Amino acid sequence: MSVITLSAGGSSQSACYSPVGTVMPAGGPVRMPVTGAFKVTSEFGMRHNPGQINHGQYRLHAGIDLAPVAVGGPIVAASAGVVSSTPTSTGGGNMVVVDHGGGLVTKYLHLASRSVVTGDQVWAGRQLGVEGSTGNVSGEHLHFEVEVNGKPVDPRPWLTAQGLIVPAPGGSGLAPAVVEVAGAGEVGQVVGGQIGPAPLTPDDNLGTARPVVSSLPAQVGAWKGEQVTNAAYVIKAGQARSLDVWTITVAVMTAMAESSLTNVAHGDAVRADTIGLFQNGPERGPYEQRMDPSGAANIFYDYLLRVPGYHDLEPTIAAHKAQRNADPYHYESRWPDAVQMVATLTDDPQLLANLPAGGAVQGCQDGGQGEGSGPGDGTGAGIVAAAQHYLGTPYSWGGGDTTGPTTGIYSSASLDGTSTVGFDCSGLVIYAVHHATGVTLPHSAEAQGKDSRGTPVPRDWAQLQPGDVISFSQDGSGAPGSYGHVGIYLGDGKMIHAPRPGKNVEVVQLQGSTYYEPMAWSIRRYTTA
Q1: pLDDT tens-digit profile of 274-325?
Q2: 400 and 505: one domain?
Q3: What is the DSSP letter of 234?
Q4: Cα–Cα distance, 47 to 435 (Å, whole number)
Q5: Are 474 and 519 in contact (CB under 8 A)?
Q6: Same domain, 406 and 511
Q7: What CATH number did the domain enclosing 395 receive?
């Protein structure tokens, strides 16, 4: 039987899943991504950007910088995987992205040159390229990133958890040489049309990675790849609640009809703000839960279990009452497929027992490839639509850029360092204005309300237009440095904004507000049409 293996999330590329297919999580050695003598020159975390682009801006440094002593030395894969992309950008320069399966991705930035192409199967120590200084850098080095389920994590604890010794900041170390030829079983193989590295033999000197998980069928009926994986998450979520097979099958049928078992980040002609496997709207839960296959399934189960006597209804009617859609028989044609899917994936209990934990997939938030880029139609309505696309997205301080939500510094109300993918107030404005007009604003509430590229607008309800950017002087003085919040005017006296930690992107009433009305405002219009 052809198999696919299970990925907890896609890498943070334009699409929700790796372009090279579903990649098997590989066991085997993990090593430093450089060779020979090297020095740790910068750590993961907040810092003032030393590069020429946005020089001095305080922002997240999402990786660890390693500088080989021998300038222009080889850069190698940290572990087995598949090269999922080799992009080039003004920030990262020449890059290589390796998908290791199970939601694990590593990135290698600022290379002088690359020696791999998309689709290449790599092993720990295979050369990916040569150290360089391409992109936004202040010197020659490797910028090494680790992402888990689409979220950047600190490479230092990740490497040490694999048994490696990472020098202290500013310290020096010695890494093994390039591994020219893979050992037996140490290179990826193509199984059933899906690319996945084979299990590797652990190497005590280099540390060990996660074990290989059980495999799902590559295809069940007409459903294949990520569709099968997403169905597995729906089934496992139901099993975790001790639900019966009929109820779980109703859920799989519903996801088939709503999204074709694809974790889409957009709605349809009926509602543009519904997302995920079950096309849940923001009124049913936060963005991250709706974009998590397991979380979305639990939302559906919550609503289904509230339907009186749902078990006595036809499956399509039960789903209709839970989803509250227009056509009660919209789901009926998917029932036989759902029965087959559930029967196939529950035949071997180990398939679902080894399914990795789910999670919202970063990279899907902007609706897939292309949606995150501007310019759009240049109108205020375009700015508003771009912002409304992310209603319900978590607040994340420091989060958001021209491509959509990003990992911020903290998101919890306690400011305890808990972080997630989302927007802060000015990050939401950056995305919405750039998406509609191509104008890239600074990540500053004050600057966005005063940027010379915008047309000043008087504080007059009769003159305000949808899409206008309003910056608020929270002490009411209007003095420089006092503007600490920003939002986008929707019309009818309302604003959309990312309010504060612990909250989500929301619409609030401005006109008549006892909170916002006393503040001083600075308003700019960035429309180009």
Answers
A1: 888 899 888 888 776 787 788 889 999 999 999 999 999 999 999 999 999 8
A2: yes
A3: H
A4: 27
A5: yes
A6: yes
A7: 3.90.1720.10
